[in-house]
What we know:
Layout: E1 9-13, H1 14-17, H2 24-36, H3 47-54, H4 58-70, E2 74-79, E3 82-87, E4 96-100, H5 101-104, H6 111-126, H7 135-142, H8 146-158, E5 162-166, E6 170-174
Antiparallel strand pairs: 1-4, 2-3, 5-6
Amino acid sequence: MPSNYRTKYVCINIVTLQDCRLINSDKLLIGYIDYLSKDNDGCWETDTRLGEVVGMSAKSVSNRLTYLSSIDLIFRIKSRNIRSIKVQKSTWKSKFLKVNFELLTCNALNNSSKLLLAIIESFSLKCELGCYATNSYLGIQLGCSEGNIKNMLTAFVKLNLITINQSNTRYIKIVNKLT
């Protein structure tokens, strides 16, 4: 990699991450739209391109955008047959989950797995030993069951993406980044 290479991150607001009205694809879609909207003109990407990045069909993206617009999390601007999408900033607070861009665009993982790895990475930055969050806590963050979290963690170990060290407290560490 060139020495001036900087890792890109998509930021997902914690309030958005915990919004029970949203599926995990919505959360990644909102984060990616916000990432592309940094110039205040909004996101100009097509539904096809948005779908390629977050692992959805163009039709599914269109349906999800309609839903996100209906609950006032995004708004669309149309002018001269060109549309732009913006995230409603009033919903954003100061805490974010950073999702590495390479992780976001990895087609080998589903969107729940991408968010779970981003959460583990976030906790690992705060604690040298790794992420010590329980399956229950991780499940609440992702809106899924403890069993689903356990299954994803088991799959990550098999894919050599994480290690789990268990003594009195379980610690999860990312060992192989998807770059």
